[in-house]
Write a structure and sequence with these properties.
Elements lengths: L1 H25 L4 H18 L3 E5 L11 E4 L6 H6 L7 E6 H4 L4 H8 L2 E3 L4 H16 L3 E4 L17 H9 L3 E7 L17 E6 L10 H13 L7
Parallel strand pairs: 1-7, 2-5, 2-6, 3-4, 3-5
Antiparallel strand pairs: 6-7
Amino acid sequence: MGLRLSLMTVYEIARVAAPTFAESFVGGVTREKCDHRLRDWAHRVVDRARIRIEVTGRDKVPTDCAFVFMSNHQSHLDVPVLYSTIPARSLRMIGKTELFQVPIWGRAMRASGMIEINRQSRTQAIESLGRAAEAIADGVSIWIAPEGTRSRTGELGELKKGGFHLAQATGAPIVPIAINGTIHILPPQTAKMAYDVPVTVEFGQPIPVENRPIPQLMDEVREFLAARVERQV
């Protein structure tokens, strides 16, 4: 059953990527289409896996402005869970280069406005944050996992500075999000997904960034996450 669920999830990814991939050749990609497809895809994945999401604090987040959303990162399933819960009109993610190298899916990600970041190249990373800043200026919220990679245990890792520089450069408030449970849907080093896993998603109060030093912002986000993220395995 777990492998069947994994295959259905791959199908759902292909289902949303294919039309965006095709439109990228003819100039038919629009933000509104991508917003709808991403939300639909997220809800379908969550429904198929019967993920039981408990959301708290979402009412703290207005929908009339762009934010930099920062969460801990436990699983690939964080993405559909967050797309189905974050209250943003338009939401795009910053993802590592490897994701953009996947045939069809990578081109669809670029066409939809996802931001590729190559952490091995400082110049390219700075360019990526510049594209993210342009998206925020256009009213698009950005999600980034400041740990930079998935946790193998669920335990919170060290936070990187890039997302904090992005927030400060654009003036976009940071919204911290604590996720627990997604690691049990797709555990590390396995391709089999699990059904009926309870997941909690807790939104924090938006954190203003103007005239605040990066270390202080990092400490505030880490404090929020560390108090809520549990070691899972």
